[in-house]
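ASSEMBLY PREDICTION REQUEST
Request ID: AP-0331
Submitted by: J.K., bench scientist
Number of chains: three
Total residues: 974
Priority: normal
Notes: Please return the full assembly, not individual chains.
Input sequences:
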Amino acid sequence: MRRSPVVAAALLAPLALTLASCSSGSSSAGTAGGGTSVIVAASGDTNVQELWQQTLIPDFEKAHPGTKVTLTFDLHGNNDQQNFARLAAATQQKKDPGVDLVASFTDKAASAGLLAEVGSKVPSLASVDPKVVAAGGAGAIPYRASSVLLAYDSAKVPAPPKTLADLLTWIKAHPGRFTYNSPKSGGSGQAFVVSVLDSHTATADRDQMTTGYHKDLEKDWAPGWAQLASLNADVFQKGVYPNGNNQVLQLLSSGQIDMAPVWSDQFISGQAAGTIPATMKAQQIADPTFTGGAAYVGVTEASKHQDLAFQVADFMLQPDEQAKIAEKIAGYPAISMSRMSSQIQQKFAAAAANTLRPGYNPDHASDINNLWDQNVPGK
Amino acid sequence: MRPTPTQSTLKHRLGGLALASPPLLLVTIFVGFPIVVAVAYSLGHTGGPNATVSLIAKDQVTVDAWWKQSPGAYGVLLRDERFRRDLLVTVLVSLATTAIVLVLAWVIALYVRLTDTWVSRLLSALAVIPMFIPVVIASWVILTFYASDGFVRTVADQLGFTAPVWGYTTTAVVIGLVWTQLPFATLMVVSGVQGVPDALIEAGRDAGGSIPRVVWSVVAPMALVPTVIAGTFTAIGTLGSFTVPYFTGPNAPKMLGVDMNDYFQSYNLPQSSVVMAVVVFVVASGFGAVYVWANYRSSASTGRV
Amino acid sequence: MATVASRAGAPRARGRALSTVSSRTSGRVLTTALVLVLGVFILGPLLWLGVRAFATGWTYPSLGPDGWTMHWWQAVFDDPNLVSSAVLSFKLAFVTMAVSALVCLPAAYAFARFDFPGRRFFLIGLFATNAFPKMGLFVALASLFYTLGLMSTFIGVVIIHLMGTVVFMTWIPAAAFAAVPRAYEEAARDAGAGRFTVLRTVTLPLALPGILVALIMSFLASFDEAQGTYLVGSPDYVTMPTQMYSLVLNYPPQVAAVFSILLSIPSALLLLLVRKHVMGGQLAEGFQIR
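STATUS: Completed
Returned structure:
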């Protein structure tokens, strides 16, 4: 048989590459020695990634020369469970977890006891609302907040609804022009679902479910599920709930829907970048408002560079950095508004930033994901 | 072709086992062992290697001694109407995809076998293209093509009528799965059909048989095993598929691959997720049994066994 | 059955007597229809997205984009993550292919030529273990890799990819080896050649087409591997499929289009180079239990 040169190349190439990558693979582990480098693990959408890569990390490295901060980013939080599994396994086996500061799945990590106790290592925490700090769990440090707003096309919707009841009426009156993402895939959809559930839930029960896990109280949600299911026929494409905050934004921007719940920071950044048309506007609704939430970071218990990691957390809570966060991704500052410049205070006046309605306890949140899937689509 | 018995000394046979052992060992450690651990988890063993995930998992069924098993987790899931619905849809989509793929593969294979023009070459080349497109891209591509602002709807609109929207429906899932599974099945069936000697086909034609008759009585029986192979591989491959249904499918009913991911990632119910994996494995084994049976049947009929 | 005989008859004179199929008009119409339908079905989606890579925007229901631009290509090449993940995917695919060949080919030879206890059982077992959905194995795998110190290592990721290729690399070459007529080997042996010489000069060249097909299938399997890689490889090793998930969900569709084209080019080249081997009978032969 004639030896084809292709065959020869196909057999030699892997050999060459194996040798090449064996030598390069070992050097990519990075210089983890001493306390001069930390790894941050974050997840979310692209605006969060850019915030870390273009603002927080360079600023920290400049303020603390000789340190190195590496970011590992998981877009969309798709692999949160895997990352959590690794962190938990490493903590149990007392091995290096590969991450010193987690900026995603901090709620899960906190409830599993995987975060290091903060104590007095983050002095700036004193200027953050203690309720917000407590809501994150043991070891969680809030660094920014945002809330969900109702976005609409002002050219097609001259009189946007101002309350939840009005919104539901609008949806029924304009079939196919509204949708929200499935709760499991994004916070904007989850906030809408939560608001509908809350409109039927007693405040006392709701408060309990915010700070603790009370499965028996979930029966209060039954009328909410029925109401959400009744919307199916009037939602985009007779009941299509996209996977992800961004999908909904794309539907809104391309004109396939006219109204949707969106994250405030994503909306503002999108308009600034031009991917969301200028005719789109966003506002909060009342009775009840859409929820907001803080984003947390936590230093891992198993980390070998805890001190530096706490320094990073503290740095993020400085007014200068908080101002940059507010500006770059339109996130609300976590520290008290009184410490921010008057410019910032004005910018967020309308959104009543520091009195954001908190979301449910994380265990309830995952139940909401499950129950929504059970009770709404296809009904 | 079975190894000839002349060299079956014990040393020789053990030598063979030794040569074959590296992949066997690797698979045992990195796949077999995790499977055992996973099955144990589904039966209630939340300690040991499963302690990590049990840390914050909810609603778990547990047993307190290592020799006890509990089918509780299975009971919970099988009583869940949503799971039963999704299981049914998954199996049906699998079977539908397999049927469509086999029909297409046979049509192409017959063209290739019975004619030798640029058409047959073009058809077989077309059918193989999807094999070289990564599955994530393939899913996205199918979604944008059949979405409400996709090609199908655009052309229809230009021609003056409204086409149905197939994006985010089970139809799109079937289309996507057919698209990605077609290459392998086509290759199998084509090569199976190639194995039928010209002489037999011509003899059938000379005896006065029409083409369909010849295909049915001569070609099909001889190409049965590759067809069954293609069918079972497609069925097993689509059962647990995640990417295509995730991108193109509806919110309900979902394929079990997506469900497994959701239960694990979003609802914090990893035990249910593992139970689903075991159920999928059992169904896949059922399909696999068909394949083993077909092989033995053909081996027996040709005196190989 | 008639495997060797049919292979020997291989580049056959296709039934000229049967070419009447295509000469009748109804046959012609059906043929054209089939080609069109299959063409649109297979190529349509690819082209639809491909054009988007050069589009500024696209408003429904126009048949063409709003405008043409190359700036999305700039955006993709400017993003260090995208390029590095693609490069890593290729590196991993080649390495996986090589390691898989090293580990599995001797085993394939053993399955073909030696009759050891449990032969069929192991062969089927290799296949059966792959039928278990990977999703259910994540946590067990994580614990195992931590215990073995393989987490976030290149070797760890290679092992994950390897698992997806074992079936291809044992079954298909085994059939290829089995199909090499013993007569040739025995003739060479009689002529005085040593065991390895026979292997090198007789067996391997004849089994090469099958091995090549197995290599390609392994390459593609490694290329597509996403979730296991993420579990073991991050944060240091991010591959293209993982990147693609985020791409299609979080960037404008034009960026996904550019990335798709970039990734499909090497695959298309691979396809063209090895088309002849892939289209031969290796695949079907490979999956029959002997």
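REVIEWER COMMENTS: Chain A touches chain B at residues 78, 80-81, 85, 88-89, 92, 108, 111-112, 182, 184-185, 237, 239-243, 254, 256, 363, 366-367, 369-370, 373-374, 376-378 (CB under 8 Å).
SIGN-OFF: pending second reviewer
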